[in-house]
Specification:
This protein is an alpha/beta fold. The protein folds into two domains: 110 residues, Rossmann fold (3-Layer(aba) Sandwich), CATH 3.40.50; 173 residues, Dihydrodipicolinate Reductase, domain 2 (2-Layer Sandwich), CATH 3.30.360. The chain contains nine helices and 17 strands. The chain has a nine-stranded mixed beta sheet with strand order 16-13-12-11-7-10-9-8-17. It has a six-stranded parallel beta sheet with strand order 3-2-1-4-5-6, with helices on both faces. Strands 14-15 form a two-stranded antiparallel ribbon. Helix 4 runs parallel beside helix 5 and helix 5 packs antiparallel against helix 9. The relative contact order is 0.15.
Length: 331
């Protein structure tokens, strides 16, 4: 077993501040850096034990830092992951792993070459509510899967360096792949850019998984209200995971049935039943898993291979969005 991980956080703003909080709570925060001196100044008094570095390069030269957590814009992920692995650090990087499939495969090989942990931040795969959904589906509670759809929409946060597909959909794709256990055979993606040229503010992706299993993902930052919802439909019922709700309302199973009367389909509706799940914070669970993998050299649940699977589907969606044509999964 290696020594206790000492983590340096690169990017401590909008989302990185949450990494700081969780790593500090586990006595694993060693250093931090950010492009904004103002942002760093706001963290100094809260985390006085964490060394402050003016650049990622300086942080990576810190011998007391054994692992890094990267929460910078997606376009910077690939280069920062590469530099971190080459510096001998274990790496946690927020989704997506990078923006290019060939680069992602190179990073996977580099992590193996240096015997380093490489984990991708697909937060919802650590969400106790989603894990309850996954376990219910695996038990066969709703029978054979027929349809999955996910919506991730809100008003803002608007980005100019990546579109809504790349900003939001990795979460939904990771959940969909975890439930189906396979990639889609065919993808059709449509979207529209209103605010910045060639940066789609919304996208709608349709997935054909074969064997009569379909799905779709809608993402937008131009939506009148926050809507984070996953619906999973099977032969023997449906499950709804609504992440904007709390308590018993967040995850519910609808045991609807389809019967037949004189060769006519008849829906037998039933009341929803809550699916219980632990109340642990998803990010706390994710960080705990990363630290455990660093300490034990275990394989992360969302390792580079899982990250590449998600990136492959994102790439299909983007190619369809750009061309306007369906895209088949490569054999």
């Amino acid at each position: 077993m290696s020594r206790k991980p000492s983590v340096g956080v690169i990017g401590t703003g909008y989302w990185g501040k949450n990494l700081l909080r969780n790593l500090h709570a586990r006595d694993a925060l060693a250093a931090m850096c950010d492009a904004s001196e103002e942002v760093l100044a706001g963290h100094r008094s809260t985390y006085p034990q964490a060394r402050v570095h003016v650049s990622p390069e300086a942080l990576l030269e810190d011998e007391n830092v054994t692992a890094v957590a990267i929460a910078t814009p997606a376009a910077t992920h690939g280069a920062l992951v590469k530099e971190s692995l080459e510096a001998g650090k274990d790496v946690f990087v927020e989704k997506p792993l990078c923006l290019d499939l060939d680069e992602a495969r190179m990073l996977e090989a580099l992590a193996a070459q240096h015997d380093r942990i490489l984990m991708v931040g697909h937060l919802l795969l650590y969400h106790p509510a989603f894990l309850a959904v996954k376990e219910s589906v695996a038990r066969g509670d709703i029978g054979r899967l027929r349809y999955i759809y996910s919506t991730r929409a809100s008003l803002g946060k608007i980005r100019r360096e990546e579109n809504a597909l790349w900003s939001f959909a990795p979460h939904d794709i990771s959940m969909m792949l975890a439930l189906t256990g396979r990639p889609p055979k065919r993808v059709v993606c449509n979207g529209e850019a209103w605010l910045s040229p060639n940066v789609a503010d919304l996208s709608l992706s349709h997935f054909d998984f074969g064997d009569h299993l379909q799905g779709h993902i809608f993402v937008s930052w131009m939506h009148p209200f926050k809507d984070h919802r996953l619906v999973v439909a099977g032969d023997d019922g449906m499950i709804v995971f609504n992440d904007t709700l709390a308590g018993d309302q967040k995850v519910q199973r609808y045991p609807h049935k389809l019967a037949w009367d004189d060769n006519l389909p008849v829906l037998e509706k039933a009341d929803a039943h809550p699916i219980p799940y632990p109340s642990d914070e998803p990010l706390a669970e994710e960080m705990k898993h990363f630290l455990h993998c660093c300490a034990t050299r275990g394989r992360p649940r969302t390792d580079s291979s899982e990250g590449i699977d998600v990136l492959s589907v994102l790439d299909m969606c983007q190619r369809s969005l750009t061309s306007g044509d369906p895209v088949e999964y490569p054999n």
